[in-house]
Amino acid sequence: MTQKTYIAKAENVERKCYLVDAKDKVVGRVATKVATILRGKHKAIYTPHVDTGDQVIIINADKVRVTGKKMRDKHYQYYTGFHGGRKIVRFEELIQTRPTQVLRLAITRMIPSGPLGNKVKTKLKIYAGDKHPHQAQQPIPLAI
């Protein structure tokens, strides 16, 4: 009995749109679930080199929570490109100034970098409030 390996074709993949309400959810738990859906690992036809993932819309990103002392101890760093240009931003500052950036960083760092990863990351939409302009896609509510 010979078995053949199934390789998904990009044009044959059925795409869905999911809606995630991040209110009072832990950042890491939301990020892992969303990253799995964006990559398409929740589907039986998952193929590592083909974009088989779905679109994800996240609302209430400003109301996420973290466990332990991460609210004041966790920090994000980036480099400006100049000498001595390392910048450090604490979690509580970032959630107040740019609330969508916290979830975006957590999710995009779970997706491999490269051309396929860049394409996958474009299917992520994050909004701070409970309104979003994607009603036409008829998003399916996803419980986390």
Please tell me about this protein's structure.
The protein has 144 residues and is α/β, with parallel strands linked by helices. It has a domain at 14-65 and 99-142: Ribosomal protein L13 (Ribosomal Protein L13p, Chain: A). The protein has helices at residues 27-39, 70-73, 91-97, 99-108, 115-121; strands at residues 17-21, 55-59, 75-79, 86-90, 124-126, 140-142. A 4-stranded parallel sheet has the order 5-2-1-6, with helices on one face. Strands 3-4 form a two-stranded antiparallel sheet. The relative contact order is 0.24. The model has no long low-confidence stretch (mean pLDDT 95).
Largest sheet: 4 strands, parallel
Q: Indicate the radius of gyration in whole angstroms.
A: 17 Å
Count of beta strands = 6
User: So what's the oligomer here?
Assistant: single chain
